[in-house]
Amino acid sequence: MVKKVLFALAAPLGLCVLMSANGNKINATAKKAITTVTSNYPCVDLGLPSGNLWATCNIGASKPEECGFYYAWGETKPKGEFKWNTYKLCVADKYDNLKQLTKYSIGNLYDGSKDKRSSLLPVDDAATTKLGKGWRIPTEADCRELVENCTWTWEKVNGVDGSKVTGKNGKSIFLPATGLYTDNTLRSEGKHCIYWSSTLDVNYEVNAVVINTSQDNYAIKTCFRYGGLPIRAVRVK
Q: Which of 4, 20, 156, 199 could bridge across to 209 with cysteines, CB 3.0–4.6 Å?
């Protein structure tokens, strides 16, 4: 069934919209001693106007339906606990209250670096650091291009629910519904596909832009930067 598209931003006080608790398991993938990813990562040409190629698997996965690693926005190493106190690009107090952003801050909310950067540098891009030159986390523009130029259907692959994204040329990728981590709890697994872009939410800089899809819709939204999300990389032609 083809789903409707929504271009919406998450409410500022919500970590990410439409989230419901679904288990209390620590990110087991992040604990594995997998440190190398081939630079010849498989990718698909979906016939997009930009010519960009989308990876067939999440970073850290070997099959399209696997979740792979979970990352906080702007971090390049997976981990098992996601909160402000464990987020490397901020200062938080012992109660996990955000006090200051130390990188990617345009200065409209927190007295942080005010570096005026709204897009991840290669050094903070997990796709670039893991897969090499030519690979990166998709920008907000890349995500919108994917939404606007592809057909989205909710399907099951080897028992895993997620979004099948089919280009006008008939080729497709599968985004598993991996949910997201907050603290050490995985939420909405099997219900939502939530993937980082490399773009900051310039209106609320504690957030970054994400693709968020479910059985009912697919949308461009935002999520708190400390949250643990998977990454689907793009390769620039």
A: 199
Domain residue ranges of the chain, discontinuous segments joined by +? 4-235
pTM score, two decimals? 0.85
Query: Strand order in 135-136's β-sheet?
Result: 43-45, 53-55, 234-235, 135-136
Q: Which of 115, 43, 94, 82 is nearest to 182 (CA)?
A: 82
- Dihedral sign, CA of 35, 103, 213, 180? positive
Per-residue pLDDT tens digits for 161-206: 999 999 999 999 999 999 999 999 999 999 999 999 999 998 899 9
Mean pLDDT score of the chain: 85
Q: Which residues contact 125 (CB under 8 A, 6 or more apart)?
A: 76, 136, 137, 198
Six-digit token pair at 53? Answer: 């190629």
For residue 112, name the pLDDT band (cuts at 50, 70, 90): low
Report the alpha-carbon distance of residue 158 to residue 155 in Å, rounded: 10
* Four-residue CA torsion sign, 143, 148, 153, 158: negative
Euclidean distance between CA atoms 26 and 197, whole angstroms: 23
